[in-house]
Amino acid sequence: MIVAYVPESDNKPHYYTGRATERQRQWKRARQMEAAHAEDGTRVYIRVNDKTVMASREVVKILRDERPDAPPLRFEMGENEKRLFRYLDQNERITTREFSRLVNISERRAMRILVSLVRAGVMRIHTLEKCDFFTMAYDVSRA
């Protein structure tokens, strides 16, 4: 067994570019249709508890936006965000797809809004093995 310690980096996400084993290639092909891709088509993996899972587009974007050289956050509170907060007053969590349907916008635009809210510290992203969901970062009714 090999154990490697890799300190946290400011230059996220990192990509594995080494050769894949046959087992890794089979696993990749089996999950190709459900896999999330980074913007350039490469795949990004993250640790969730004791498992390595493919990062969603949202997580990849958040990791890139955490870099020190990332552009500053620009955020405007609009009607879509207000509808989102009203929804989350009644529901514990929401996915990108649910949000896009709630406010009738594209999933890409919904993702940008949710990622901005995560960067602003208003929301949190939670990664499960097959999907991500978003929750409020704190209880707004108590603030």
Key descriptive features of the protein:
143 residues, alpha+beta, two-stranded antiparallel ribbon, two-stranded antiparallel sheet, elongated
What does this protein structure show overall?
With 143 residues, the chain is α+β, with helices and mostly antiparallel strands. Helix content is 36%, strand content 13%. It is built from 5 helices and 4 strands, in the order αββααααββ. It has a two-stranded antiparallel ribbon. β3 and β4 form a beta hairpin. The longest helix is centred in the last third of the chain and has 13 residues. The chain is elongated and about 50 Å long. About 7% of the residues have low confidence.
Along the chain, the helix and strand elements come as: HEEHHHHEE
The shape is: elongated
The chain-level mean pLDDT equals 76
Are there runs of 5+ residues with pLDDT below 50, and where?
A: 30-39
Share in helix: 25-40%
Report strand %. 5-15%
Structure summary, number of beta strands: 4
Task: Report the sheet with the most strands, covering strand number, pairing sense and barrel closure.
Answer: 2 strands, antiparallel
Q: Cα-atom Rg, whole angstroms?
A: 17 Å
Strand order of the largest sheet: 1-2
Secondary structure category = alpha+beta
